[in-house]
Amino acid sequence: MRKNRKKKAKKRFKFFKIMPKPERFEQAPTVEQDIRERDYELLKDYVNDIYEKSEAEEEVIESFKEHNETVLKYADNLAKKEEINPEEEEILKTATILHDVSKLGTEEGEEVPLVKHGWESAVMAEKKLEELGKSEEFIKGVKKAIERHMGPIPGFMEREAKKWEKETGEKIKFPRPEIITEKILYDADMLALIDPQGIEKIMNIRKNNEIFIKDDRETAAREGISQEEASLRSALKSGQEATASLFTDSAREKAKELLKESETQIRRKLEKEKKVSKVITEAERIAREEAEKIALEEAREEAEKIFEEEKKEVEIK
Ligand SMILES: [Fe+2]
């Protein structure tokens, strides 16, 4: 009898064990969630359409799309760590999708200066969100987050503002993040600058800009390093600048990890490129020598032919 009870209890236990825990049940999305998801996709398409309408090269457009996805990923992770509420999450995600919408120009194809893309993106976001019937308060939250996302400040963005002031006489004062949604968008954008793709992007910009090229050449000569190493060091410095300007602890922690990863990954890549270029140079040298040998041989044969022909002509005469 006792044995039987034990057996039954064991059976019941087994039954509960194979039953999924209540939290494992996935809740079906509500109508509101469905609408939110549909709107996110709509807004992503809107941003991509604006980019594609611009005159930027395909490569640039792709890198902007990629950047937006990366910032979205970081913003999502930070939102989880900072435990923000669903309303804040919706504002954050919407602002993140739209934060750089004007960076390649407006809907009418007008150019937008880098120092002003936060404000212009906010204006474009407002118009689009009104079309989608979003509330005034929601739109205000999204706009404020977009206007406050530009950085690093202090650092690069302020230097750009000084250049702008010199060129146009217009003084620019950047509004700074105040509440958690604004801080997370700023931090997520900075993390995208610090990660390996971000650092590489800075290096590519340096490689294609006369002033930066001169700068890196001078550093390389002064410190006895290669131009690429100088460019990497400068890009990492920008990464440190971005790290120092972060707002949330979760982002600071992630930034440290990313900076290390960026340095290791890019150093490894540069090393590999150096080896490849050495092999190519050697192959080119051998090919050049071979070509010279063949050319010399051919010239010698040609000379001999001429000599023989001349000899025959003299004999005939
Ligand atoms: Fe931006």
Rg is 31 Å
Structural class: mainly alpha
Strand percentage, roughly? Answer: under 5%
Bound molecules: fe (ii) ion
- Give the N-to-C terminal Cα separation: 135 Å
Please give the count of helices.
12
How confident overall, as mean pLDDT? 90
The largest pleated sheet is described as: none
Number of distinct beta strands: 0
Overall body shape: elongated
Taking pLDDT < 50 over at least 5 consecutive residues as the criterion, the unreliable ranges are none
Helix content: over 70%
Secondary-structure element series: HHHHHHHHHHHH
Can you describe this structure?
The protein has a domain at 30-151. 77% of the residues lie in helices and 0% in strands. The protein has helices spanning 2-18, 31-53, 58-81, 86-98, 117-131, 136-147, 156-168, 180-194, 196-207, 210-223, 227-244, 249-316. Helix 2 (31-53) packs parallel to helix 4 (86-98). The radius of gyration is 31 Å and the shape is elongated. It binds fe (ii) ion (FE2). Residues 99-100, 117, 149-150, 189 line the site of fe (ii) ion.
